Structures are given as C-alpha cells and as structure tokens.
Fold:
Amino acid sequence: MSTVIEKDIVVIGAGLTGLTLAFYLKKHNKDVLVIEKSDRTGGVIHTENENGFVYETGPNTGVVGNPEVAELFEDLKGLCTFEGADPSAKRRLIWKGNKWHAIPSGLISAIGTPLFTLKDKFRVLGEPFRKPGTNPEETLTDFVKRRLGVSFLNYAVDPFISGVYAGNTDYLIPKYALPKLYALEQNYGSFIRGSMQKAKEKKNDPRLQKATKEVFSAKGGLGKLIDALTQKVGNENILLNAENTSVSPEKAGFKITTTLNGERVEINAKKVVTTTGAYALPAVLPFLEKAETEPFEALKYASVVQAIVGFKNWQGMSLKAFGGLVPSRENKKILGALFTSSFFVQRAPEGGAVISVFMGGTRRPEIYEMSDQEIHSLLESQAREMLEIPDFKPDLLKIFRYKHAIPQYGLDSKRRFETINKLQEKYPGLYLAGNIRDGIGMADRIKQARTLAEELAK
Structure:
C-alpha cells in the first residue's frame, strides 16, 4: 500500500537552491513539495554552536554578487538578518617566501608588493590595449598569462582558484568557470575597461547597486538563513529522510516515487526540478539513456577537508584580515584559511579566535583519505609556521570531509550544458538545476532559484 500525493511542482533537494526556489514558488502561490534525502534542510550549509564558538560545517561566507542576494534577505526580514563582514575582511593575504603578504589595495601598495614581478606590474598598464582572445575553450592558465603575466597567475589567480574552486587553473575554462571575467574581455576588450564600464552602468541602475560584492553571512551563522527559508516553505511542504527517490515521465507530467520510514510514497506532479549533484542524477532520473547521463557522470569534483580550529585565548599572529590563501607553487599542504571570528561578530569567546582551514582539492586529493590523526599532525605543523602558534593546543578541533565539495567547470561543461537544454526540451516540465550549471557560489544558487521560480510561475 502506498501514499499518493498530488502537487503542481516537486523540487528534489532541500539545499540553498531548492529551498530558495520553493520559497519563491510559494510566494507565487504555487503548490510545491520539496524532497530531501537527509534528516535536515540546508544541504552542506549548517551552523554549529559549541562552547562559545559558532562555526560553519560547510560554506563559511557568500558574496553579494547580484541583487538577488540582497533581495532574499529583504524578503526574509524578521526571520534572519544580513551580516556583512567587518571592513578588516577587505585585507586578503597570500603566502609567499615563508610569510604572508597583503594583496595590493591601491596604487602605492601595488607598486611595492613583492607578490608580482616588476615586468608584470608594467604589463598590467597595457592590459586595456590587448586584443581579446579568440579561443572560447582557453584554459584559465593561458587566459591569465596572456592578459596579465605569469606572476599574477601564480600569486593572485592560482590562490584565488584554490579558495573558490579548490581547483587547478590548467583545468578550468574561464568561459564556464568565471563567465563574468570572460565576458569583460569579450564585451569590452579588457578587464580594466570592462570593470570601469560596469561601474558606470551600476550607478545608473538602483537595483544593480544592491550587488555590493560584500562578503556576507547571516547573524548567528548561515544556518539562520536556512531556518528562515525552511519556515517560509513550511515543514508540511518538505519531506525529509526520503530514500530511493526517482522520477519517471508520464503523459500529464511526472511520477515521483520515494520511501519514507519504509513506506512507499508516490507523488504526481506537473513539473519537477532537480537540484542534486551530477553524481546523483542517474539514480534520480533512471529513464535517461546512457548517452544522456554520461555528461553528468563526467563532471569532476574537488574533494575538500575542512578543519575548524578554535582558541579561547588567541596567542598567534594578528588575524585582522579575511584570511590567507596559499599558491600551489609554495608546496604547502593547505589551500588556505578563513579568520572567521575576525570579520563576523560573536563567533568566538572574547579574546579568542575560530579559524576554518581548508585542505585537499584537485591538486592534493590524497588528503581527503587521511585519518583524523594525520590531519591533526598536518595542521599542527602548518599552524606553527603559518599562524605563528608555538603550542598547537586548540580548545576546539572539528574535521569535516566533503567528497563532492565543488564541481569543476572544465572543457566538459559545454557538453553538460547542451545536454541539460536538450533534456529539458525533450521532457517538458523537467528542470535540471543546482551547481551543475550557472555557477558554484551562494549568489549563483540564489539567482538561479529566483530566476527559475519566475519562469515556473508563468
């Protein structure tokens, strides 16, 4: 005996994309149901509060890269509060030559920084006059070398990619991985000219001014944002602990089957949106042919280890910065660290600190397989030198592993995007969303969900 449910729209996955989508669909008075395999909403976003430390077990921050982020907090007013980073977060550190160096923030610091060669500092002056590239599948490595020079690749872009993608500039394709940067060159002929023109456009559009590029969280942690979205969607519209969820097309829409507490549940819906990772799609959409699932199975993911390190009495280096990133050529075993308690309030006891350290990624996948003890030893050796901690005895140490942390937008992205479009045309009412397309950041997820909600509401 199975339960049968009738719904307009079913969303598979209750992460940030799925919840934001369901929230805006509800605002459009749509009858929506969210199906989630775990026992809570939020996906990888989750906030913990322990012994005076508030920390994230997944993403630590987002960037207000588009107006939709600011508007989401406006729409959730009263349930969660936007928290922008302290101005100290504007200071970003790069490791070079056994010490930290601040990324230049102005002309004087740009001239004096040891991060870039004198040749490349002069080379930047000619960037507005270089011709745009003609190869849409150029790697990020070649892209940056061509426009800025090798030292900017090694000590600006490479560590940035480690921090955002945990990836490799030799693999990522700007057209797919950094489409805004790619568009600046293609549309304006230059990063510098394009950035100046975009700034002018923003001044004339009040809505675009909401995209402040500010680092953000929610007061009390990103979990508060998830709680607010969950409350707005309504627990009655969310199925948790749903196992073996699969979709099949029907004449009048789709049939979704899942298992709750050992009982089979059947949902009939006019439209279905998947927000799961690429690795889960073949099981969720078993009616697809092998050729149709191959582009998703080919998507490469970075495996990441995150260590949360808390000290009630901080005795190390000054943490008045957003954090530090480590270029791959420096041959360290960490990707970087976020000094979370320095730019968000009440994340650590007074006089203490909480730091998120990231390891692994596509360059060092073996770290994902290390034991907790091995990671502890790795942290101890790196912290002594890089954080100037003579005695590594943290009051809080938590280790989290993410096998499918961040999708890598490489050459295979074009085929994946084309397959998504073809499948959505072949099966009207089926929408493939999530970070398999449209970017990997929180701002990307929010914008995609909002845009898709408006499309589905028509």
About this structure: The mean pLDDT is 96. The longest strand covers residues 263-274. The two ends are 36 Å apart (CA to CA). Residues 442-457 form the longest helix (16 residues).
